[in-house]
């Protein structure tokens, strides 16, 4: 053990030397942008390795204490990068509990949403924090404190979120960013833009342009059904808006001019055989982060702060955006990141629109919901009732319980379910019944609201126009 500790200490010490070297190297030499990117990535990796090895954040000029221990919950041997794969197109993990979000925060260089931030949001808005915040479903952020600082000084901001419309079918997991964005819009009383990246889907999937655009309009109906305020919300399809807004296109081109092929290759993993549409697309997802992309809303102001609630796999786009922003004279967008919604079959399996059994879809009937959960929801329970009563179930890997953390609003009830399931008092069938009875009315209400969304309503939301708010 002593030997291991010493070895850790030496490795950590060597890392400190390497870090010092790189910090020195970075701050004293003027080198080309591409090389800086490589160096920054190396520096980040060294910092990650350092934290992994010592359990502490790297502080310049502060060598690790002699008694360094790995505080990584005993998971010292798992590869920090091998286990989870997270990018805008693929998310995979081999862990039944799902992606390790603490590691992802270190890897992406974002900040954890601590209780302090949640308390602050409560204080500033005067509203009980949304369950997604209370339960760490939105778990990571960039610059949220800054947004609140400004808001307290009566400087408002706007929200930007989006969706890639790859099919007509949306499942409950797709609603997570919209449910949360709606709450943010309500408690802060601010405008919102929603980008439907039908162009992205055309570039990445084997679909016709008309199909992608149709999916965008169909998805917009489900999004509108989440209850957004038509006087404060602009929903747009890239195919429609890019061609109609010179200001938007100008920002796209400004961004394109300030990002090199090497950078997007590094961030997104593009290869020489990817079409040039893919390579330039990140600029289109970045542009709505800047308020003057919407002159009809912000009247040409370029300094309105943007806050982006999204799933963490979208972060690469906004790391790029934040890197470009100061170079083209715009504020960096702030971010709130959500964790992933698990497939019914378990957190390490993929949810797919082509497999109706992998999730609950917004078009499912009460009977389908019941059958899917009973037949397909991965259970953390024991094989027999006797064993389950004796040893209890494992809520950490149980998909029905995970879904309840997303959709059951009552904290006390959720905690009681967790205790009872863990102790064995609550059986898997009973847990599933609670989930079924939570989702059936929720989906039915969504379907009812969607039915009310007419073509005319969609047109209203999707027409570039002034919105009603004070900044
Ligand atoms: C995502 O994963 C699939 C299959 O694992 C692979 O074929 C595809 O190239 C990956 N896409 C990207 C953008 O990495
Ligand atoms: C913000 O606005 C409110 C109401 O208009 C006002 O009472 C308050 O003094 C303002 N705060 C600052 C810091 O300007
Ligand atoms: C939107 O604004 C219009 C005109 O001011 C108003 O009549 C309508 O009630 C508003 N709608 C909502 C949902 O607030
Ligand atoms: C979904 O599950 C049902 C019943 O368990 C089965 O009959 C059906 O074939 C499955 N569908 C797919 C696409 O796997």
Briefly, what CATH class of the largest domain?
Alpha Beta
Average per-residue pLDDT, rounded, comes to 87
Shape: globular
* CATH fold label of the largest domain: Rossmann fold
State Rg.
Answer: 23 Å
Give a quick account of the main beta sheet: strands, pairing sense, barrel closure: 7 strands, mixed
- The string of secondary-structure elements, in order, is HHEEHEHHEHEHEHHEHHHHHEHEHHHHHH
Structural class: alpha/beta
* Amino- and carboxy-terminal Cα gap: 59 Å
User: In what range is the share of β-strand residues?
Assistant: 5-15%
How many helices? The count is 21
The largest sheet has its strands arranged as 3-4-9-8-5-6-7
Bound molecules: 2-acetamido-2-deoxy-beta-D-glucopyranose
CATH architecture of the largest domain: 3-Layer(aba) Sandwich
Give a description of the structure.
The chain has helices spanning 2-28, 33-54, 101-108, 115-125, 131-134, 144-152, 176-188, 198-204, 209-224, 238-244, 246-257, 261-268, 276-286, 295-298, 315-324, 366-376, 385-391, 399-407, 411-423, 428-452, 455-461; strands spanning 84-86, 91-93, 111-112, 138-142, 157-163, 192-196, 233-237, 305-311, 334-338. By secondary structure, the protein is an alpha/beta fold. It has three domains: 1-47; 95-344, Rossmann fold (3-Layer(aba) Sandwich), CATH 3.40.50.620; 354-451, Tyrosyl-Transfer RNA Synthetase, CATH 1.10.240.10. The protein has a seven-stranded mixed sheet with strand order 3-4-9-8-5-6-7, with helices on both faces. A two-stranded antiparallel ribbon has the order 1-2. Helix 4 (115-125) runs parallel beside helix 6, helix 8 crosses helix 9 (209-224) and helix 11 (246-257) crosses helix 13. One 2-acetamido-2-deoxy-beta-D-glucopyranose is lined by residues 153-154.
């Amino acid at each position: 053990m002593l030997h291991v500790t010493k070895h850790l200490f030496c490795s950590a010490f060597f890392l400190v030397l390497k870090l010092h070297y790189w910090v020195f190297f970075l701050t004293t030499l003027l080198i080309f942008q591409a090389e800086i990117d490589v160096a920054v990535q190396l520096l980040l990796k060294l910092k990650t390795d350092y934290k992994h090895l010592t359990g502490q954040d790297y502080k310049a000029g502060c060598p690790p204490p002699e008694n360094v221990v790995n505080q990584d919950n005993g998971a010292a041997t798992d590869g920090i990068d091998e286990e989870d794969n997270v990018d805008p197109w693929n998310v995979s993990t081999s862990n039944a509990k799902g992606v390790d979000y603490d590691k992802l925060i270190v890897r992406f260089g974002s900040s954890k949403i601590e209780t302090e931030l949640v308390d602050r949001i409560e204080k500033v808005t005067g509203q009980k924090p949304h369950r997604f915040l209370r339960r760490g479903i939105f778990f990571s952020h960039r610059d949220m404190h800054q947004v609140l600082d400004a808001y307290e000084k009566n400087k408002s901001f706007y929200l930007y979120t989006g969706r890639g419309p790859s099919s007509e079918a949306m499942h409950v997991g797709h609603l997570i960013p919209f449910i949360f964005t709606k709450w943010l819009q309500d408690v802060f009383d601010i405008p919102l833009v929603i980008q439907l990246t039908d162009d992205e889907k055309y570039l990445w999937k084997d679909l016709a342009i008309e199909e992608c655009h149709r999916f965008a309009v169909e998805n917009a109906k489900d999004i509108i059904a989440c209850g957004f305020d038509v006087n404060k919300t602009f929903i747009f399809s890239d195919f429609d808006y890019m061609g109609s807004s010179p200001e938007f296109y100008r920002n796209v081109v400004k961004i394109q001019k300030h990002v090199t092929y090497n950078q997007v290759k590094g961030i997104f993993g593009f290869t020489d055989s990817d079409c040039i549409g893919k390579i330039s697309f990140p600029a289109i997802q970045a542009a709505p982060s800047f308020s003057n992309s919407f002159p009809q809303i912000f009247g040409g102001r370029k300094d309105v702060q943007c806050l982006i609630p999204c799933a963490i796999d979208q972060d690469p786009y906004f790391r790029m955006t934040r890197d470009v922003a100061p170079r083209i004279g715009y504020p960096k967008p702030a971010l709130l990141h959500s964790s992933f919604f698990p497939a019914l079959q378990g957190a390490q399996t993929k949810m797919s629109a082509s497999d109706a059994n992998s999730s609950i879809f917004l078009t499912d009937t009460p009977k389908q919901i019941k059958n899917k959960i009973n037949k397909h929801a991965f259970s953390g329970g024991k094989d027999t009732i006797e064993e389950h009563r004796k040893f209890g179930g494992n809520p950490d890997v149980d998909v029905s319980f995970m879904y309840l953390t997303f959709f059951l609003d009552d904290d006390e009830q959720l905690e009681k379910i967790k205790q009872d399931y863990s102790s064995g008092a609550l059986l898997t069938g009973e847990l599933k019944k609670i989930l079924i009875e939570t989702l059936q009315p929720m989906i039915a209400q969504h379907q009812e609201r969607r039915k009310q969304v007419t073509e005319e309503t969609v047109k209203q939301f999707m027409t570039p126009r002034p919105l009603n708010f004070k900044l």
